[in-house]
TrEMBL record, chains A, B, C, D, E, F:
Identification of the protein by name: serine O-acetyltransferase
UniProt cross-references to Pfam families, sorted A to Z: Hexapep
Reaction(s) catalysed (UniProt annotation): L-serine + acetyl-CoA = O-acetyl-L-serine + CoA
Transferase is among the record's keywords: yes
Signal sequence extent: none
Keywords: Acyltransferase, Amino-acid biosynthesis, Transferase
E.C. number: 2.3.1.30
Membership in a protein family: Belongs to the transferase hexapeptide repeat family.
InterPro entries in the cross-refs: Hexapep, LbH_SAT, Ser_AcTrfase_N_sf, Serine_acetyltransferase, Trimer_LpxA-like_sf
Keyword Amino-acid biosynthesis: yes
Amino acid sequence: MSDSKKAPAVDQITLAPVVDDLCRGASGTTSTPGGRVTLPSREAVIKIVEDLRAVLFPGYFGTSDLHDESLHYFVGATLARAMRSLEEQIRRGVAFTERHDVDTCSHCFEAAQAVTKSFLGLLPEIRRLVHSDVEAAYEGDPALRSRDEAIFAYPGMFAVTNQRLAHALHVLGVPLIPRIITEYAHTLTGIDIHPGARIGEKLFIDHGTGVVVGETSIIGKNVRIYQGVTLGAKSFPLDEHGNPIKGIDRHPIVEDDVVIYAGATILGRITIGKGSSIGGNVWLMKSVPPGSRVTQAEASEQRFAFGAGI
Amino acid sequence: MSDSKKAPAVDQITLAPVVDDLCRGASGTTSTPGGRVTLPSREAVIKIVEDLRAVLFPGYFGTSDLHDESLHYFVGATLARAMRSLEEQIRRGVAFTERHDVDTCSHCFEAAQAVTKSFLGLLPEIRRLVHSDVEAAYEGDPALRSRDEAIFAYPGMFAVTNQRLAHALHVLGVPLIPRIITEYAHTLTGIDIHPGARIGEKLFIDHGTGVVVGETSIIGKNVRIYQGVTLGAKSFPLDEHGNPIKGIDRHPIVEDDVVIYAGATILGRITIGKGSSIGGNVWLMKSVPPGSRVTQAEASEQRFAFGAGI
Amino acid sequence: MSDSKKAPAVDQITLAPVVDDLCRGASGTTSTPGGRVTLPSREAVIKIVEDLRAVLFPGYFGTSDLHDESLHYFVGATLARAMRSLEEQIRRGVAFTERHDVDTCSHCFEAAQAVTKSFLGLLPEIRRLVHSDVEAAYEGDPALRSRDEAIFAYPGMFAVTNQRLAHALHVLGVPLIPRIITEYAHTLTGIDIHPGARIGEKLFIDHGTGVVVGETSIIGKNVRIYQGVTLGAKSFPLDEHGNPIKGIDRHPIVEDDVVIYAGATILGRITIGKGSSIGGNVWLMKSVPPGSRVTQAEASEQRFAFGAGI
Amino acid sequence: MSDSKKAPAVDQITLAPVVDDLCRGASGTTSTPGGRVTLPSREAVIKIVEDLRAVLFPGYFGTSDLHDESLHYFVGATLARAMRSLEEQIRRGVAFTERHDVDTCSHCFEAAQAVTKSFLGLLPEIRRLVHSDVEAAYEGDPALRSRDEAIFAYPGMFAVTNQRLAHALHVLGVPLIPRIITEYAHTLTGIDIHPGARIGEKLFIDHGTGVVVGETSIIGKNVRIYQGVTLGAKSFPLDEHGNPIKGIDRHPIVEDDVVIYAGATILGRITIGKGSSIGGNVWLMKSVPPGSRVTQAEASEQRFAFGAGI
Amino acid sequence: MSDSKKAPAVDQITLAPVVDDLCRGASGTTSTPGGRVTLPSREAVIKIVEDLRAVLFPGYFGTSDLHDESLHYFVGATLARAMRSLEEQIRRGVAFTERHDVDTCSHCFEAAQAVTKSFLGLLPEIRRLVHSDVEAAYEGDPALRSRDEAIFAYPGMFAVTNQRLAHALHVLGVPLIPRIITEYAHTLTGIDIHPGARIGEKLFIDHGTGVVVGETSIIGKNVRIYQGVTLGAKSFPLDEHGNPIKGIDRHPIVEDDVVIYAGATILGRITIGKGSSIGGNVWLMKSVPPGSRVTQAEASEQRFAFGAGI
Amino acid sequence: MSDSKKAPAVDQITLAPVVDDLCRGASGTTSTPGGRVTLPSREAVIKIVEDLRAVLFPGYFGTSDLHDESLHYFVGATLARAMRSLEEQIRRGVAFTERHDVDTCSHCFEAAQAVTKSFLGLLPEIRRLVHSDVEAAYEGDPALRSRDEAIFAYPGMFAVTNQRLAHALHVLGVPLIPRIITEYAHTLTGIDIHPGARIGEKLFIDHGTGVVVGETSIIGKNVRIYQGVTLGAKSFPLDEHGNPIKGIDRHPIVEDDVVIYAGATILGRITIGKGSSIGGNVWLMKSVPPGSRVTQAEASEQRFAFGAGI
């Protein structure tokens, strides 16, 4: 190798046509508007969620502790910060979705104010629900020795808390942000619950990796779900252009006191009756009455010589 | 939109009652003590684990390389730092769990010292085990071209290494921290192995997303597990208050040389005999003798017109 | 607790033998060479991928927007930076794999230059493919209200984009880095697609957690895959030393217009014929002709008293 | 020290009255308006300045180098980013200064646009000036072995470049931001040049710590200034309320080719004639004609016994 | 340059003796005790100071603004956090200075609690003083167009605020931390005011670089000081070991309404009488009565040929 | 303000000509070569200096403490890391200065190795010197209550330590990096000592802001220097092109036991005889014999009416 100068691999000869190609293509498929476009910030939304977790479980995710009378200050300051940031992010979300200029869209401004105020009012109820989830974990997991551990270490608690926050925003018509909140949990826990799903109190998702709960799912009270469970849709009707028709109820209804074991796949607008138990790895596409017990067909077994592989 | 001042959406009128509500609720469900409460720091625990990984695989996760005689310095400094931090985190964990003031609890202090010293002594054996896991990956994955790649890119290696470290702490009675260590791996890999599981040498988990190995599982030598496999519990007995009775053996025993394919769900204190092979997506709740081959019941097949959906 | 000095738990008496043991072991199993060894940097590779995502979807992951004429500058600068860094990382990857000194290996230098230049030329085609994936998501998910959401929030898009970039590098013979790129997606999405897999246009992976696509898989156009699906290998032949023989075609071929539902496990070099639909949780190890519809055997159902457990 | 719980030092009894006091005071002296007030971000302004430095000296503060044809991309992208951010910060500055709501003030919006466009047009001239400063350093410092070192390591270059950028904004009437830019240099270099100062080409400030150049100073071409030099004001007239009257010319005029040595203090609207040399530690409050040489009065010397102190 | 492996420059042959030498020396000069020694954290102290600045000037350094009723929450939460952290840092400072084990020293614990509580009670008075300093800046600097600019951009404000906080801790007997606070300001502003200096209301330091105010200085009300001014000590008496005797009053007393211009050096326990004005670059070691005007001896001037140098 | 889209202020019409202008100019004045140019990294150099400070003062800037036997590990690991990084940065510095391609320049490689090895050998002597500086501070500052405070809080210690490290590299012929090291101290302390200055043991610089010590200065043992002191050059001879002739001895020689008070300016290759004392604000350009006491001419004093200004 000589000591002379080496040109870098990629110079103008090679770079320019690729840049031109990528830029030309850009105006085709996707479609952001010409003005100032500001997507909601994923980092800001995550910070909001963490702040809300801190006020829902003070002492676990903040710097305060319970009997300290500075608690009011911490909760108040954290909540005020979160609400301000939320209002800003909602404004961005509305402007982006409706292709408005975020700096000048008064409609976006007013919508964000109204929604933020409504969301604030929902927090006490969300708090009640997430604390019921802690109870459900404590009752449902023999490996859990204290409620503390559920609160700060259980992925199911994390994902369900995120979904309950996202659902409130979803119901209020906020675009994009609910999805960012549930995808944040999805990334960290492998639990993917659509913001649209309606979930009763005391939901316990154990382990949770691979759980999918679709947009129009309804889950009753006191339900237990294990890893790899899908509450999904079957095929869906298409419109005249061949695109799926959006917004139809197409996911399961799970009534109170149901347990769904690992890997079960439940598809379509069917109802799992109250108190039923769905076995692992079951593939289920029709309703079952209350108190049902559904299991996979018998596995076949056979002895074979060691080392022969499968 | 007029140029006048706009009040922010959330002001004192709306904020104060929510803050009061959230603070009032705080003293109810959860229960942190009045004094200085310091939870173990997740960030500190993760740093400890990364330092330990660096000394278990010097040259892969540190700045040193093998034939460099500065290796002793690096290993020594990294290990000393990790042990100091671990002692501090254990002290916090004990104080939190037993509701002591971490600054003044001499019992916590002494317990942390004793446990840290014991843990240090276990490291060479842990090192032997994780290196056996590297061999297992090399032998078990045709896509793997060098041991290097297993060490620094395989999620299964990552998760099993974390569990072996967490298990040693679990056996020594350390609270909370083992769980933080395995949940860290769970978040990054989707592999959820409880710190309590007892695992023999040469475990290879391939791909791994969705794998769950429960608290009282026992896994023999030279076992291979694919993604989505559950070694879980069946229903569990409740005490007189309706809470699950903790600490009963309720997860499978997997003997040496077993292979469990993707998505298999194995539940309860059953035994998978030596050399058995469990097929994908099987739902298994009874023991199988050595050399068994278990597969799902035959899938049903039918031709249908293209485009008709399922 | 007396106010006297406390010795830390771990001192020289305990530390030295463990350090010696760990260092002694180091020269055994693993094998980094004596010179300057620099592994590719995971952080640098991730930054490259994010830069490439920004030029593949300008306006979504950068600071520019589409109709802004500064777009050329942004795309050009981002691409130039990414290509420089990629060249450096490839050089490291080659040097590490072939055990050369990265600072003096002219072969590594030249290989990195050649490959980087070739990769650049492939970007327009990659761009075409990932935009076809956006279309597939829009057509395939009723819950998706705009293409925007697919681009910046869908884990399937993320993972498939990463794989398409990694695949191009894999085909060009780049070591280690393709794996880092797909493992990055695996960590964030739970979707594990090997860089070697060959994938046609318009792939849509919905939810995605637990999806595994093996090294020699071939996927046609317009395929839809749900969470927990495995395209895996059956057992594999061993060489005379008991190690698996590398590089044999051992994963499925999925033809155009196939849908594979959640949790299906498809193993071996079989072919899923064009337009087939594979039901959830199916375990499939033989080829099916075009237009097939495969479902799990009927689940067994039975009513039982509420509360009895499973 | 007993093992009992300790209350933290600061509890509600002590905290509440202090908080009340601090909040009560807040509405007195200072005066931010009721709406959304957003100060310009110091971090954003610093980033803008660093981006501008990168385009003024490409190859020294960026990632590009000169003969690379990707230079246009880098300069264009960096400049576009800086201009966008500058426009935003100016908008904030105007809104804050005039007590408008930054989100709804269309005047602020338009002013920021106009000023940013004008500033952009001034950059080539600023570039010419800062490159003349490099030459001045090379000619004026025997310790400097290459122009490179002046560009990236000389505090004088740093401070003068910042002032030239700040001055352009100051002339355009931008509030607050020019001061942030020069204070940034002041913090890092100890050189405090007011944005209002008018400075000709080829200014060289050597070492520079403690240099102060006041608001209405005028500095000609080819001037050399050493550390600790002050170009300041004498006493100033007060208005009827006893406040200083703002905006009067009150700092020195330094003509071309002047050298001012370390620690000289030059006060008031006096003129230092072309080619003069002002000695170190001089205190000067009257004009001197061209070609003057001013030095401090003779120091008095005396021998004294060693060790007696001063 | 051959393609062979190169050994790194520094290997065990060269490294070991240097390490041994450095470690051997370590036990000589300096003297940290054997137990757990934790110095106060500079980062933590800086964070405390920034939090206190935020509550002293709410709306300027926090996220709140004045008329927002969430102000109480922000001030309360910020103050509570700062006091907790301050208590911890004081505990460390006491333990380090007195060579106690920070984890077990109950004396350190109690001292930190008492001091923190006292310090909290001083904050309203400190607040009054720093707001008087803002007024002084506004009255004293014709270049200042609003009080805002003084608060967030004037180095003199920054340094004096830090000193007032440090002084309160100094008076309470806190070791090390006051010095860290003033050195933080020294680093950023070049203004070095010892925590021990006693300073009346309405101090204005303009520009400030190079200002030094010694430990036993006393400064009255309404004093103005320019850059480069020293209030220092003359020679000091030594004890029988030749070490300086600590704690003697040895710095100037500056009475009310004094102005000291740039670069003046005032040494020893002398008094500058009320209303005096000390000219720039003066060297002064004896007291002057009220109303004095002191200036440097006349500078000598002479014309000389241009270009001849000095 | 209408709700319509607003174009950003800076678009292609305005941006393109400025970019072209800036790029065109780039090839003129400055001169980086065409190949891969990598300047030494300021961040890396700072990290090296901090690591060296940690091994020079173990227990103050590291995580270890003195009586801990893990000290050897910490010192060894820190030193090994610093030496590796230093070698890399020197290689970059040589390549940049000599306009070589850093990746292929074997001369740069070998030079960096040789110099790094030599520098390592100088560390014990540097250690001895900086510890002598601690003693000098303790003996010279009545405000200093422990050596600890000098080590971790005194800007003079910081700056002199940096200079002693930089000087060793300067003597070894390393380009650029010594300057980065001293400028780092200059930025943080306002003390600017050229790497070329030769400094004896026990130097104490108190406060230090504004101190300048020129390239060819020689400072003896046990010297004390206060803030604002300059050891500078007078005018310098020019070559036939009008550029200053580099490398001539042009700064003062300060013999042992000299004290130089605040603001003194000492210029030219003069000698301050052993044991002399130079008063504050003196302007001195001729040698003084041993034992001299030099002070500024008498200041003139006069009483004047309060409030009349100066």
